[in-house]
Amino acid sequence: xxxxxxxxxxxxxxxxxxxxxxxxxxxxxxxxxxxxxxxxxxxxxxxxxxxxxxxxxxxxxxxxxxxxxxxxxxxxxxxxxxxxxxxxxxxxxxxxxxxxxxxxxx
Length: 106
Description:
The protein is mainly alpha-helical. Helix content is about 45%, strand content about 10%. It contains six helices and two strands; from the N terminus they run ααααββαα.
C-alpha cells in the first residue's frame, strides 16, 4: 500500500495502516472470527485474491498489528496472531459495524 508523506494527524496515520479495502476485513477475521491461518483467510466470503492477502498480511505484520508465527514443518502451519495494538481496534471494529447501513451477520 502506498504511504502518504509524514502527517501528525492520527486519522491519516491510521488510514495508512488499515485504510485499504482489505486490511480491516483481515483484522475482522483475526479479532472477531478468530481466524489464524492463511487458508482460513482465503475461505472468507469476501474472496480476497491470494496475492493481495499475502501482501496485506505482510503489511499488517510490518505495522505491528499481527505477529507471524512460522509453522514447524511447513508454511501451511504458519499462524497469524493479533498484537495488543490490534486488540485495541476491537471497539473500533464494533463501532464501524454498528455504524454501517445494515447489520451483516458475522
